[in-house]
Amino acid sequence: MSADRRLRIAGHREQVFMERTILAVDAGGTKCRARLVAPDGTVLASGEGGACNPSTELRGAIAVLDALVNVLCRQTMPQTERGSVVLSLGVAGLVDVNRRTAFLSAHEGFAEIVAMSDGYAALIGASGGRPARLVILGTGAAGHRLFADGTSIQRDGWGFLGGDRGSGAWLGRRAVEAALKSYDGAAPESLLSQRLVALLGSGEAAILDWLLRATPRDFASLVPEIVAAAEAGDGVADALLEAAADEAAALVRSLEESDGGESEGEPLYLLGGLSELLRARIETRIEQRFDVPQGGALDGCLLAARGQAPQERRR
Amino acid sequence: MSADRRLRIAGHREQVFMERTILAVDAGGTKCRARLVAPDGTVLASGEGGACNPSTELRGAIAVLDALVNVLCRQTMPQTERGSVVLSLGVAGLVDVNRRTAFLSAHEGFAEIVAMSDGYAALIGASGGRPARLVILGTGAAGHRLFADGTSIQRDGWGFLGGDRGSGAWLGRRAVEAALKSYDGAAPESLLSQRLVALLGSGEAAILDWLLRATPRDFASLVPEIVAAAEAGDGVADALLEAAADEAAALVRSLEESDGGESEGEPLYLLGGLSELLRARIETRIEQRFDVPQGGALDGCLLAARGQAPQERRR
Known about the structure:
Largest interface: A-B, 38 and 38 residues
Strand content of chain A: 15-25%
Number of domains of chain A: 2
Distance between the termini of chain A: 36 Å
Number of strands of chain A: 9
CATH superfamily of the largest domain in chain A: ATPase, nucleotide binding domain
Oligomer: homodimer
Shape of chain A: globular
CATH topology of the largest domain in chain A: Nucleotidyltransferase, domain 5
Order of helices and strands of chain A: HEEEHEHEHEEEHHHHHHEHH
CATH class of the largest domain in chain A: Alpha Beta
């Protein structure tokens, strides 16, 4: 394969795309996964790296991606000179133009860079690039929809302090608030409050210290406690799970844009760490079953780089 | 007045206390206020400094207090050699023993240091040192009660992520969540959501940037928007204010410890930036009027240093 795309004869756009080596990267706030794929679809190398979130830790995100790229390209030299490779990247936190520019321009020498949000990569990976809707419920929460005209929308994904309604961090924070309200004697004790207070620490100083250091992931890590309490019959815990399902159902409905046309027959996916936990509760609310995804976010990155799915273009 | 307390004849504890020069400091997360008071009650000097919160910014808090102390002592030299002065300090964030030690040991050379929480200083300042209850609703929220045996309790004050139920930061965060839910089309639009979204920024990137930098104080600064929307008839905004009043009323009730005895006839105070806003709503809920405080937190620091109020001793 020639590294020089200028020599190609235009006209068969997909053909051109198919002849490129692609480095697909699904970059997340917890870890990155990467796959280097030859034009014929052969996986040349794959690997994992640390957390990559340009909006909260720009320098760290650049370093993590750089290390991952270097390892994979070096493993497969000489056939994967960077100049012949398309980097196709699904990553959160590129909404801000300055941050986007700083992050992408730090990775030089590729034939092309295709960048999209991690949620969009998951959406087109799930649908094979066809119009579809996706709700992701993990530490955070976001909804995505791809329209027939190739444009897309995102709803929520505002993060821990402003939204991520119904997410693990959202659930954990509400559970902690309820538990400390009981601890204060401002609400009745419950199984949930007892379990959580015991988990946060022994005594006021330990609890305050936990709160001072707590990240969204720490709050989301409390979800199994909420589930256990709900299963043991705790009404407060069950109400929290119901409220999360309410939020997720509202997020599904918010993807029905008035100018987006009907979504009848269009697949609807649910992904993320909380999907199994809340699937049935959400399905009851929206009176619809979720579809089974065709592939993951790395597949979405490959599809976008090959021109088999639209590149992300937000309405 | 002699600087050497060892020369005094014991027996008249209050008398001894009254003969000391006191540097009272009300140290808050927004600013510090300090007053240097001679044994006869004459104010020798007073001043203000920056934010002082040992739990979130230990070094900054030490530096701010140090600068304030130095300025006041130097202004009034030679009569206020540090060794003859009692530093009496109301400050948040001293629950953790290590942080408390680090903060207090950084201020050396005083005849004595009397340290209490800022809320306790406000409580005894309000009651003149007598048993009483106090709810503080500002950027954060906490309840305090002093019992007849000299011990006291605190409720809430867990901070922005774990509690501060009904506070300005709590209100602002809930309002932002509601506004972004409307912005996402997952809830109906309201006057509140329109005002807040306009205030957070123009477009998704600006809003995300606001959220990324937002402090509890930033969230609390949105309260006037909530009030304006509620006054214009916005139901969502009014429901938020009602929910905050519910939380504050529950906080008042949580101060009735089962082992604390009746609080009949004991004064009940409401302080903080949200007190005027929520006073009537809370009074309706608790079927009781709040009392008028006798003095402020600086007065509380002076009382504790003079032995006219118990030093803080938590149950």
